[in-house]
Amino acid sequence: MKTEFSAEVALTPAFHDIDPMEVVWHGHYVKYFELARCALLQSFDYDYPQMRASGYAWPIVDLRAKYVRSARYGQSLVVRATLVEWENRLKIDYQVRDADTGEVLTRATSIQVAVDVATGEMCFASPNALLERLGKAR
To answer: Any idea of the CA torsion for 117, 82, 46, 12, to the nearest 10 degrees?
Structure first.
């Protein structure tokens, strides 16, 4: 049984991601987290289309980031997403690193909760649709 769920994506900041200070604008990191999160969710076949098909939406209810060092135009980056909680919510940790040196540039965490699409009600425990894919069904 898989004990760690994580995925990495490689990317290079585009010119349109750069701000007047010639670094990646802080808001674009959220897009980078999303790319890594989708790769993570795809790794256990529960990406957004599968979530919707299972009857649940998973909105992000909290997002926190710590910017350690700025990324720059053309810099090769690796963004890693790791699932750290799944019983009552999805808590995902992120790390943005320089691909060449391994230096950590940004750390972040997002929290998502299950919402029943039919009723709009938030679930207080993760649904079996997720747990089965993780090999953690009740």
So the answer is: 100
Distance separating alpha carbons of residues 53 and 41, to the nearest angstrom: 14
Would you state the structure tokens that stand for residue 107, as one six-digit string?
């750390």
Q: How many whole angstroms separate alpha carbon 70 and alpha carbon 15?
A: 14
Query: Do 10 and 99 contact (CB within 8 A), yes or no?
Result: yes
Determine the 3-state secondary structure of 22 from DSSP. Answer: coil
- CA-CA-CA-CA torsion sign (54, 59, 65, 71): positive
User: How far apart (Å, rounded) are the C-alpha atoms in residues 102 and 96?
Assistant: 9
Is pTM, for the whole model, over 0.85? Answer: yes
Joined together, the tokens standing for residue 115 give 């919402």
The DSSP annotation for 60-110 comes to EEEEEEEE-S---TT--EEEEEEEEE-SSSEEEEEEEEETTT--EEEEEEE
Tens digits of per-residue pLDDT, 77-114?
999 999 999 999 999 999 999 999 999 999 999 999 99
